């Protein structure tokens, strides 16, 4: 760094004034940045104090965590019978995610149509649908699971219903947005050819939004596989129940086995749905 | 389709292809249509079969559902009645009797989400440059970091929380760490995508001056990506607020603990009060972060 060569600019007053202005602007934006970082740090310090996070607790915790990780290797189901039980509950998890997503899509489809401005041009109606979808969406899947357990008892069926309920809200919203973002021209074309209201939706709207909706549903299937793995925590079926049990009884090698199963299942479903999504989007572009 | 509009009845003569040209076209159209129908039908059949199999595995019992569906509606209705039997809106003071405690817990929930997001964002920030193909040409470290991020975001945060509760003890700390790890995985991927889409000319310019790798990242990459990072970070905060509200279900702090107790002990009006508070908070945070995100994006890429 000692041999740094200097670049000498001609001392033109206009250039110097311009540089001064640039420097001032830069100093101001630096000041703003410093202020923002200061606020973020202050809030973090307050949070650490308020949540009672002490240094030695973190150190001790990480020590324990290290021990658990050592005990997790090698992952082990305990016995073949156990492995089969785990595999069955993994299948249950995937089934919960699949059925929950399908049912949610089934119910969300008409709701999405009703909540879309260009299908039902009644403001107040649309407002009501939107707000109820928001409320349903605002309640976590786990809470819906607790409620459904009261209705159909413990087991995977409650999980299916819970995933369905919370996704009706989200999918309904996404569907209505997809419908509102659609192109008006095909609908106008169908109208001009003498199509009825139903024809307009069927031939003008659906071909446009169907691929979008299908790929959203597939995406939700992926993310629901993750949700379905934890829904067992409240007794709504799937692999979560075993996971909680093994963590609470410190069977770390089994915990690792279960986590690996989950990772494998999620990766498989991601792969499958990515391929299906490409197929759907590819097909639609050919059809158009 | 029959022509119903009055204009069509007038009979405007459309130009028509001669039959020997039209027939093959019409046939090809019919064939293409039939193929599309067939594949759609196939898809529907596949979905139905998969649903039936899944229904068997997931122990779906529609008879039980319809027999007990009144319990669901009853439950929802009960949420809006106090212990005394009066509707909740007749006595808001009794309905929200624990508001001081609940607001404090909600504040804790927000702080858990904040700390989790902050720590996760910092970790993702330092990892994303190593996970981008344009800044790290070493396939080994890049792959390693990518797998690590994948692991962090695939394992649900509640699973991390369950394990951390055993290691760190009950309280908000495991919740913070679980959210932080999940955030690292989710944001690390998004950040890396942003970094891979940057303009490489500033990077080349700074590299040409003899800057080290970190200096290049600092001076040529960070100014381009900071606004997007901030926007993604805020979006994550929004998601983490929802996540933090159920951390208490496994003993990892926040309002979830109170909520699950009220649900388990059938304190109906408490459940609705806490749920309303959570929904209101989430909505406020949604609106506030959206404003801030627009601000950041509007501000553009500034150093």
Quick take:
The complex is a heterodimer of chains A (288) and B (303). By secondary structure, chain A is mostly helical.
Give the overall silhouette of chain A: flat
Strand content range of chain B: under 5%
Number of domains of chain B: 2
- Average per-residue pLDDT of chain A, rounded, comes to 85
CATH architecture designation of the largest domain in chain B: Orthogonal Bundle
Give an overview in words:
The complex is a heterodimer of chains A (288) and B (303). Chain A is mostly helical and 288 residues long. Chain A has helices at residues 13-50, 55-72, 80-115, 123-138, 141-152, 156-180, 185-192, 197-230, 240-248, 252-287. Chain A folds into 2 domains: 13-70, no CATH class; 77-287, MetI-like fold (Orthogonal Bundle). Chain A has 10 helices and no strands. Chain B is 76% helix and 0% strand. Chain B is flat. Chain B has 12 helices and no strands. Chain B has helices at residues 6-9, 19-57, 62-78, 92-95, 99-128, 139-154, 157-168, 172-196, 201-208, 213-245, 256-264, 268-299. At the A-B interface, helix 1, helix 2, helix 3, helix 4 and helix 5 of A face helix 2, helix 3, helix 5, helix 7 and helix 8 of B.
Task: Name a few traits of the molecule.
heterodimer; A: 288 residues; MetI-like fold; 10 helices; 81% helix; B: 303 residues; mainly alpha; 76% helix; disordered N terminus
Question: Strands, helices and their partners?
Answer:
The complex is a heterodimer of chains A (288) and B (303).
Chain A: H1 13-50, H2 55-72, H3 80-115, H4 123-138, H5 141-152, H6 156-180, H7 185-192, H8 197-230, H9 240-248, H10 252-287
Chain B: H1 6-9, H2 19-57, H3 62-78, H4 92-95, H5 99-128, H6 139-154, H7 157-168, H8 172-196, H9 201-208, H10 213-245, H11 256-264, H12 268-299
Helix pairs in contact in B: 5-8, 5-10, 6-8, 7-8, 8-10, 9-10, 10-12, 11-12
């Amino acid at each position: 760094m000692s041999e740094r060569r200097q670049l000498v600019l001609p001392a033109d007053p206009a250039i110097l004034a311009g540089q001064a202005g640039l420097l001032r602007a830069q100093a101001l934006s630096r000041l703003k940045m410093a202020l923002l970082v200061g606020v973020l740090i202050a809030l973090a310090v307050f949070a650490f104090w308020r949540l009672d996070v002490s240094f030695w607790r973190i150190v001790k915790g990480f020590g324990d965590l290290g021990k658990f990780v050592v005990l997790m290797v090698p992952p082990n189901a305990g016995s073949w019978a156990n492995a089969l039980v785990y595999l069955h509950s993994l299948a249950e998890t995937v089934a919960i995610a699949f059925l929950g997503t399908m049912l949610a899509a089934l119910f969300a489809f008409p709701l999405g149509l009703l909540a879309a401005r260009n299908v039902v041009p009644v403001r107040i109606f649309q407002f009501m649908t939107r707000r109820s979808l928001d409320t349903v969406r605002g309640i976590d899947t786990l809470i819906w699971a607790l409620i459904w357990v009261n209705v159909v008892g413990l087991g995977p069926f409650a999980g299916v219903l819970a995933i369905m309920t919370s996704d009706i809200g989200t999918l309904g919203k996404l569907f209505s947005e997809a419908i509102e973002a659609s192109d008006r021209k095909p609908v106008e074309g169908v109208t001009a050819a003498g199509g009825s209201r139903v024809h307009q939706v069927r031939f003008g709207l659906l071909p446009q939004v169907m691929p979008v909706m299908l790929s959203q549903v597939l995406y939700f299937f992926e993310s629901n596989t993750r949700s379905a793995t934890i829904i067992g925590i409240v007794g709504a079926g799937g692999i979560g129940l075993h996971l909680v049990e093994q963590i609470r009884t410190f069977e770390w090698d089994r915990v690792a086995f279960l986590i690996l199963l989950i990772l494998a299942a999620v990766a498989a479903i991601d792969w499958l749905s990515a391929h299906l999504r490409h197929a759907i989007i590819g097909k639609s572009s050919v059809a158009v | 389709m029959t022509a119903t509009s009055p204009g069509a009845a007038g009979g405007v003569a459309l130009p028509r292809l001669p039959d020997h040209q039209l027939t093959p076209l019409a046939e090809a159209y019919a064939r293409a249509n039939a193929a599309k129908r067939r594949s759609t039908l196939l898809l529907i059949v596949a979905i139905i079969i998969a649903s039936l199999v899944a229904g068997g595995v997931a122990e779906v019992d529609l008879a039980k559902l319809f027999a007990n569906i009144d319990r669901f509606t009853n439950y929802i209705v009960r949420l809006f009645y106090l212990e005394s039997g009066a509707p909740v809106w007749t006595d808001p003071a009794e309905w929200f009797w624990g508001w001081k405690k609940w607001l404090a817990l909600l504040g804790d929930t927000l702080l858990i989400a904040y700390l989790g997001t902050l720590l996760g964002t910092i970790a993702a920030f330092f990892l994303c440059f190593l996970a981008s193909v344009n800044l790290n040409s070493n396939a080994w470290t890049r792959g390693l970091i990518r797998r690590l991020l994948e692991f962090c975001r695939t394992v649900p945060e509640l699973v991390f929380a369950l394990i951390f509760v055993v290691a760190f003890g009950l309280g908000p700390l495991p919740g913070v760490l679980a959210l932080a790890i999940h955030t690292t995985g989710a944001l690390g991927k998004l950040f890396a995508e942003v970094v891979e889409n940057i303009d490489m000319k500033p990077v080349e310019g700074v590299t040409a001056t003899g800057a080290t790798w970190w200096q290049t990242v600092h001076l040529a990459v960070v100014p381009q990506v900071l606004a997007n990072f901030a926007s993604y970070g805020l979006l994550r905060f929004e998601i983490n607020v929802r996540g933090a509200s159920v951390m208490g279900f496994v003993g990892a702090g926040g309002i979830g603990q109170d909520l699950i107790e009220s649900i388990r002990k059938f304190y109906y009006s408490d459940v609705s009060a806490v749920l309303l508070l959570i929904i209101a908070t989430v909505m406020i945070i949604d609106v506030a972060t959206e404003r801030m995100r627009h601000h950041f994006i509007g501000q553009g890429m500034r150093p």
